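The material for today's practical consists of a large collection of protein records. Backbone structure tokens are a discrete shorthand for how the chain folds in space. An example says more than a description, so a record of this kind follows:
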Amino acid sequence: MRSLSKVTEYPSVEQCIGGAADFSDTQPWIYTLDNPYLHGVYAPTSNQLDVSGLRVEGQLPADLEGAYFRNGPNPLLEPKNRYHPFDGDGMVHGVYFRDGQVAYRNRYVNTLALQDEHAAGRSVSPGVMGPFDYSLSQFGIKDTSNTDIFFYNGDLMSLWYNAGHPYRMDAADLSTKGYYDLEGRSQRRLSAHSKVDLATGELLFFDYGDTPPYMTYGVADANGKLLHEVAIDLPGPRLPHDIGFTTHYTILHDLPFFHDMEVLNRHGYRVLTFHKDIPTRFGLIPRHGAGSEVRWFECEPCYILHTSNCWEEGDWVIMDGCRSTNPMPDAQPGEGELASMLAYMRLEANNYRWRFNLRTGEVREGDIDDLNTEFNKTNPLYHGRKSRYAYHQRIPLHHEGGFTLRFTGLVKYDNDTGKRWQWDYGPGVFGSEAVFAPRRGATALSAEDDGYVITLVTDSNTWESRCLVFDATDIEAGPVARVVMPHRVPFGFHATWARGEDLFAAR
């Protein structure tokens, strides 16, 4: 097998041990494994820090108040089997902006699975690449809570991509409080990309599984009390990743990229197939509607990881997001037993718009742009209402050097015109999902891009990390401020912004 760590620009195991870069904060067992998602920018950190008074390069905006939180995989113990980045234990990084000062802290999401493994001193989960072992948990693998993070009902909710158990974290010190239970709900599973509507404070959620009902959809109020939950009729197990919402509707996803249950039951492996002959379906359900009220709209076969925003225009419901027509790229020669995982992580997607007519049933869909981008965010004050702007991460394709998933630049889109503005992070510098931070005191009546775009980057030339703050109206001017992080911040998945008026008022 070819040494995978050497096909990227990241250092080899030998370079990590003997080179100038300081990787003393990582887990020592990574040096025994040749997996690119355990080295370089992906190497886990063993640090859990609390640092205030961070140094700022440039001018920090006076009306920037709140916190940037980012979740991601940070494995504590050597994996039992082959490692997939979805297997890494969740770690949340928080960058806090208040009164012209910046503080940072990071903590593991202290899941029950992590506690058990830490007590045992070894990893027991077989991992995403299997074989799944349902004697360990209802998921067959470890619920790592490493995917999404958002602020809801005074705390952070940490979630897992596979519809796991949500965890509640204190937004101030990032301590884990335990499961995030919704009052009145009989079970806990929640998909990673449930949504908070800032206009009402409601949580719009869904979950899914391998047994009927294959999906449920529900709504909780701003105080964490269940208001509504219904079963959604699907033809079989699916792996939906996101939803969208408007003022009156929630948009559910039935996507033709799913696993073979016979293979899973017989052999314990989740084998995903993209069924190009099956349409993608989007189900519009009134926010508090019954399962029988879902209206399904058929579209071209595709897979969707993340929506940007949705809204209503007369008889039409519009959804912007990123669309993939090749969710399982071909494995590359010479990549050995990790070839399928590496192919799956090479994300191919582009900015796209769907339109659904509630009166006639008509569907209109098409590209906004063809650039390979994903991990798309918009102004949260505009969620559910008409918006134009979205902020994406540029992702190099395999032939462009995209051997592993990495973000090489920030892209701002005007989704009405397709115009884009870009900021390149620089050679060997890799970013995180960027969030939109409204100016302090902004409302849904403020200009849509009246605020800031914030991301974390790590420079593989120096292994230093920065938190970048952009004026959202002009990202091509570059960051107005760079906050120097106290240690290397590993690659992660999703981020969120908690407004100062919500975060600090509750303290």
